[in-house]
Task: structure prediction
Amino acid sequence: MNQANSLVAKVEESLKIIETAEPGLIEKISVIEEYITHAKRQINQIEQRLRADKAIAHEDKVFSLFMNPTLSGLARVKPGFR
Result:
């Protein structure tokens, strides 16, 4: 967990430097910041489950980091199931 938190912190530091040096990249940086938010939530949930032995409420669980609200109408199929 320490390594994951350290990597997220490094990405955040790098984004601050890039944002200052290349203001034209702000839109792309905001997308990366969304992934950082997801990463922090995942790390938090893993810590809750493993270290604190807490259950995660169903509505707080992350089923996919790559769920795009615009694609929510697509059927999700598990491999081997039809």
